[in-house]
Amino acid sequence: MSNKPTFVVEEYLLLLYKLRDSHGHIKAVDLAQRLNIRPPTVHATLQRMQRDSMVQIGDKKTIRLTEEGENLASNIAFRHNLAEYFLCHTLGISWSEVHKHAHKLEHAMTPTVVEKLAAFLNYPEACPHGTPNPGYSLPDDCFTLDKAKGEMMLEIIMISEELEDSEELLKILQDQKLMPGQKHQLIARSDGMKSITLQQQEQPAAYPFMLPLHVAEKIHVIQSKD
Ligand SMILES: [Zn+2]
Ligand SMILES: [Zn+2]
User: Fold this and answer.
1) Residue 162 Cα to ligand 2 middle (Å)
2) What is the average pLDDT across 217-224?
3) Under CATH, which number does the domain 7-69 receive?
4) How far is the CA of 195 from the centre of ligand 1 (A)?
5) Mean pLDDT score, 41-54
6) Which residues make up the environment of ion ligand 1, defined by Cβ < 5 Å?
7) For residue 91, how far is its CA from the centre of ligand 1 (angstroms)?
8) Are 183 and 153 in contact (CB under 8 A)?
9) 124 CA distance to ligand 2 centroid (A)?
């Protein structure tokens, strides 16, 4: 396998790479659902990827990235994160919007561009939403926001990539300053309403904000010391 993967194959690789951490066993139907593509088409693409040694399809139809596939995918993830960082911090495009633009750019970046861009941006460790670049990981004491208890002061570390697909949701998170580096105090938790309520540390006058637990599950935080 020496040719550069096609746009479509790169999309599959990136999705498999992202799902492998959060969802144990990935099958073709999961990909079909995520990509909004008919299962027979997904199946055919996966067969080609298996032929090209990027994935291995196991007995129970679970799909696993091979070492080759993993290398290709982490490279795409790096390009995606760099593109987002550049769009957000250099070009000033909105935090809630950069993901969709980066999705287009990531496929077009040559190795030279990636190298120069990484140096230009001073080698960021994560995307603007906190997803660590390959080779970096989340802090050990990180947990998901739905697990927060009491009146903890929390610092946002990462908004999962899954949430990035909804620009509308990201806009709400941005308005509420639910972004990496921002601090919020947990003020209430309701299992009945399946929600938690947070208060921004920087703007105590702002109204408390109620967040559904299914969104909180995808936001990673640490307990803040101050
Ligand atoms: Zn993204
Ligand atoms: Zn991101």
Assistant:
1) 10
2) 96
3) 1.10.10.10
4) 25
5) 95
6) 99, 164
7) 16
8) yes
9) 12
Residue 102 alpha carbon to ligand 2 centre in Å = 9
- Are the C-beta atoms of residues 16 and 45 closer than 8 Å to each other? no
Residues 104-154: tens digit of each pLDDT: 999 999 999 999 999 999 999 999 999 999 999 999 999 999 999 888 899
How far, in Å, is the centroid of ligand 1 from the Cα of 9? 17
Question: Ligand 1 centre and the CA of 96: distance in Å?
Answer: 10
Centre of ligand 2 to C-alpha 57, Å, is 29
CA atoms of 190 and 196, how far apart (whole Å): 6
At the fourth CATH level, the homologous superfamily of domain 143-223 is Ferrous iron transport protein A (FeoA) (2.30.30.90)
State the pLDDT at residue 207: 86
Parse the chain into domains and list their residue ranges. 7-69, 143-223
Query: Which element (helix H / strand E) includes 102?
Result: helix 98-105
Q: Is the pLDDT of residue 24 over 90?
A: no
Whether this prediction's pTM lies above 0.70 is answered by yes
How far is Cα 154 from Cα 178, in angstroms, rounded to an integer?
11
CA of 174 to the centre of ligand 2 (A): 13
Q: What is the maximum alpha-carbon separation in the chain?
A: 59
Q: 3-class DSSP state for residue 53?
A: coil
